Amino acid sequence: NLKPEDVLLDKDGHIKLSDFGLARSLEEITTTFCGDPYYMAPEIITGDKQTYAIDLWSYGILLYEMIAGEAPFKGDSPKGILKSVLTSTISMPDKFSEDARDLICRLLSPNPKDRIGSKDIDEIKTHDFFKC
């Protein structure tokens, strides 16, 4: 799963992603439960079918954390965090713009089929959040 320590900047300020240790092709079936609870999509926790929409979820968590300075889901233990992911409603701090709220809410849809970008990644690229 995507998390802050996997996002690097090169000398020109371009983003590079690292740590693909848990990466699998979508054709591979995986039953291993692993990853950082803060960035784990609900379908991983419940054992449902995994698609690349799990990466959209992680991206939504990362974006939230970059703006808020903290993770959207809380817990006293990894198990508590996982429970929070499945049961909590995300609260958006006042400093979030309307465009940020919309994008993050759509990335963090509990249903992977409803996540922005799950049908066409250009949905994310053309979102108002990215317009100057």
Automatic annotation (TrEMBL):
<keyword id="KW-0418">Kinase</keyword>
<dbReference type="GO" id="GO:0004691">
    <property type="term" value="F:cAMP-dependent protein kinase activity"/>
</dbReference>
<dbReference type="GO" id="GO:0005952">
    <property type="term" value="C:cAMP-dependent protein kinase complex"/>
</dbReference>
<keyword id="KW-0723">Serine/threonine-protein kinase</keyword>
<dbReference type="Pfam" id="PF00069">
    <property type="entry name" value="Pkinase"/>
</dbReference>
<dbReference type="InterPro" id="IPR000719">
    <property type="entry name" value="Prot_kinase_dom"/>
</dbReference>
<protein>
    <recommendedName>
        <fullName>Protein kinase domain-containing protein</fullName>
    </recommendedName>
</protein>
<dbReference type="InterPro" id="IPR011009">
    <property type="entry name" value="Kinase-like_dom_sf"/>
</dbReference>
<keyword id="KW-0547">Nucleotide-binding</keyword>
<keyword id="KW-0067">ATP-binding</keyword>
<keyword id="KW-0808">Transferase</keyword>
<feature type="domain" description="Protein kinase">
    <location>
        <begin position="1"/>
        <end position="130"/>
    </location>
</feature>
<dbReference type="GO" id="GO:0005524">
    <property type="term" value="F:ATP binding"/>
</dbReference>
